[in-house]
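Researcher: Here's a chain I'd like modeled. Treat it as a single chain, no partners, no ligands.
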Amino acid sequence: MGQGPDCKKEPHQLLPDMTTRRPCQAKTASWAVKSDGSPTTDPEEAIEGMLLPTAGPKGFGLALSIDLLCGILSGGAMGSDVMPLYGSADVPYDCSHVLIAIDVGHFGDAATARARVEAFCNAIRDGAKAPGVDRLFTPGEPEWQRRTKWGDEVPLDASVLNALKELARELGTEIKTTPR
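Model: Modeled as a single isolated chain. Structure tokens:
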């Protein structure tokens, strides 16, 4: 399963990030296990073992449900039949995916649904803020704002851009950039 939602959406819509694993930065003994099932904070041991889902048993239930939906609806692999992401390049990864789009117009008036979602999001944004918090966001809203700001451009850190330029030189080509 991909670990980051990426779709076109309107600003009033919600796009919660429903990834089912902990970020790799959270290197505590509860984020991964070795191949023998014992906890680890070592990335190499985690690759040989397994990343654990977020939120304990509830997160496992969510991950299991998504795995079943993806495998059953696409006819692809599930569970341990999915090959390791960093395994042999000769063996297909065989990870299953499913994309589900729901047309709310089949359940009622789409404009009414859109207005209700917008009102709900505004209630979140207008909620009580903790001291030092300037703004509340709905899930996915900061990412939407960044995407809107950059459009089709991809902002790169100078060190990343320099590394890409060096690699391009080694390959006998060049990278065309548009300075902002």
